[in-house]
Design a protein that fits this description.
This protein has 231 residues and is mainly α. The protein folds into two domains: 1-32; 33-228, Penicillin binding protein transpeptidase fold (Orthogonal Bundle), CATH 1.10.3810.10. The protein contains eleven helices and three strands; from the N terminus they run H-H-E-H-H-H-H-H-E-E-H-H-H-H. A three-stranded mixed sheet has the order 1-3-2, covered by helices on one side. Helix 5 packs across helix 6 (123-139). The longest helix has 27 residues, at 2-28.
Length: 231
């Protein structure tokens, strides 16, 4: 019994330490850039490299910010981290076509997954993703979430973030990306290792045109402008 009580006390202490530690880390990342992510570490270990450059939201072009919202999460300014209708549609689609997987993740969810977790579809990871999504929505806010997402998102094999993608594919900083260039990078986000920007895959070529149409539609939206600026 004494051994059991010691183990139990040890586990409780570890839980408290981990709980406090992750809260401190979440709060710190409101101002400090993530030192590394699991995806970046795996990319480096597998020999793909880990090219990245962190920049502030003000150093990213209006086009780039609008492109990822148009591509990944058009309701980003309005939801509290989760697009429940999108999730329901994705679940319905996946049930009808189990061989094809459609995601319903918001930019907030993707940011939580990229920064704190690993890639995968287990229930444990989804549960943790829900928790971290809720926390960053409450602590970081939309602008910081978008900023971190644009810095940590995988944009090619061994390439992370919008700045590194802009430099690699177009030889310019992210602040100078045109609408077409930003849409091309955004088009590859679902699977940047498969859907390449350079050389441009047929998928990226077709999808980037659709993204530009959505960008033109969303451009006047005041809620979006409040997050990414007006241009």
């Amino acid at each position: 019994m004494r051994l059991f009580r010691r183990i139990w006390r040890f586990l409780k202490r570890m839980f408290i330490v981990l709980l406090i530690g992750q809260l401190v880390y979440i709060v710190a990342l409101k101002w400090v850039n993530p030192p590394i992510t699991v995806t970046q570490l795996i990319s480096f270990i597998e020999g793909h490299g880990m090219d990245r450059t962190n920049i502030s939201l003000s150093e990213i072009s209006f086009n780039a910010k609008l492109a990822v919202i148009a591509s990944e999460d058009q309701l980003f300014p309005d939801h509290s981290g989760f697009d429940w209708k999108g999730i329901a549609k994705a679940m319905e689609y996946n049930q009808k076509k189990p061989g094809r997987i459609r995601g319903g993740s918001t930019i907030s969810q993707q940011t939580a997954k990229n920064v704190f977790l690993w890639q995968g579809r287990s229930w444990l990871r989804k549960g943790l993703e829900t928790y971290f999504t809720f926390m960053i929505e409450k602590i970081w806010g939309k602008k910081r979430i978008l900023e971190v997402y644009l810095n940590v998102a995988e944009t090619g094999t061994g390439i992370f973030g919008i700045e590194q993608a802009a430099q690699t594919y177009f030889g310019k900083p992210a602040k100078d990306l045109s609408q077409y260039e930003a849409a091309a990078i955004a088009a590859a986000l679902p699977n940047p290792k498969k859907y390449t920007v350079k050389p441009m895959s047929s998928y990226v070529s077709v999808r980037s045109k659709k993204i530009m149409q959505q960008m033109n539609f969303l451009r006047p939206d005041r809620d979006i402008q409040a997050i990414i600026g007006d241009k």
